[in-house]
Amino acid sequence: MPLESLFARYKGLVLLDCETTGLDPEGDRTIELAAIRVQEDGGKGLRVAAKMDAYIRLPEGQALPDKIVEITGITGRDLAERGVREREAAKEFAGMVAAAGGPALLVAHNAQFDMLFIQALLRRAGASTNSKGAMLDTLTVFKDRRKYPHKLSDAIKAYGLGGRAQNTHRAIDDALALFEVLKAMDMERGDLHEYVNLFGYNPKYGVSGPQLQGVRYRPQGYRRGMAMPCETLPRICGRG
Questions:
Q1: Strand 104-108 and strand 134-137: pairing?
Q2: Given this model, what pLDDT does residue 159 score?
Q3: Tell me, what's the pLDDT at 147?
Q4: Is the Cβ–Cβ distance between 106 and 138 less than 8 Å?
Q5: By C-alpha distance, which of 81, 112, 91 is closest to 35?
Q6: Confidence (pTM)
Q7: Residue 70: CB partners within 8 Å, gap ≥ 6?
Q8: Considering the domain 4-236 in this protein, what is its CATH number?
């Protein structure tokens, strides 16, 4: 079964992506939060058990930057007409995680960015996922697998997923694409569980933003190709 090493430890995987007004999780806002929950299907494989894709309204008087409209295609009108309040989006996301029925693993590409925004969103809404904080950063994994660059679009190309996945800078498309990338990573090398709560960072710049509770941060330089099993970040850190 795909992702067997992860499902041996978690009841569900919640793959997520955010679109935001900027880079500061405290000063900027999430304008789209999308996630899919993947679970085992009674011995038949894996299934997408739930999806969410929420536009989130900005605080009154705050405008959507033109650059963000250009990148995402999301407009102020979209948020005004189709957006929900932060509290509603936070409640839906927390419910999706809880509905896994046991320990859930949150998965994102550049998870440091997305998780800081989600935590800020949940905090403002007074919501909690009640999860134990297990997180997997596929960017950290990909940096051990391929040479620079390491965007989600690069992973889609590297694994030949162009016919099944697209990196559109729309959160729901990126969450679905991430599922395909995650499966491809698992088929390539079955060590994804070793990366849980281990985030690599560029030693030139350090960790971006506050450190997430429970996450182990380690410098991770660029490679010229796929790391040998003994050279991966988890093995360097004594995991595995």
A1: parallel
A2: 96
A3: 96
A4: no
A5: 91
A6: 0.96
A7: none
A8: 3.30.420.10
Q: Are 213 and 173 in contact (CB under 8 A)?
A: no
- Determine the length of the chain: 240
Give the pLDDT score at 182: 98
- Under a CB-based contact definition with an 8 Å cutoff, are residues 99 and 50 in contact? yes
Which helix (H) or strand (E) covers residue 112, if one does? helix 111-125
The angle that helices 86-98 and 111-125 make with each other, rounded to 10 degrees, is 110
**Which amino acid is located at 190 in the chain?**
G
- The residue type at 95: G
- Strands (DSSP E) contained in 82-154 are 104-108, 134-137
User: 């998965």: which residue's tokens?
Assistant: 107
Q: What average pLDDT values come out for the chain (240 residues) when binned by 10 residues?
A: 94 97 96 97 90 96 94 94 97 96 96 97 89 91 97 96 78 94 97 98 96 96 93 92
How far is 20 from 17, CA to CA, in rounded Å?
10
Q: Which DSSP category does 33 fall into?
A: E
**In the block, residue with structure tokens 């070793």:** 194
Cis before 149 (ω within 30): yes
Q: Within 10 Å of residue 84's Cβ, how many Cβ atoms?
A: 16
- Structural domain spans, the chain: 4-236
pLDDT of 43? 77
**What pLDDT, on the 0 to 100 scale, is given for residue 6?**
97
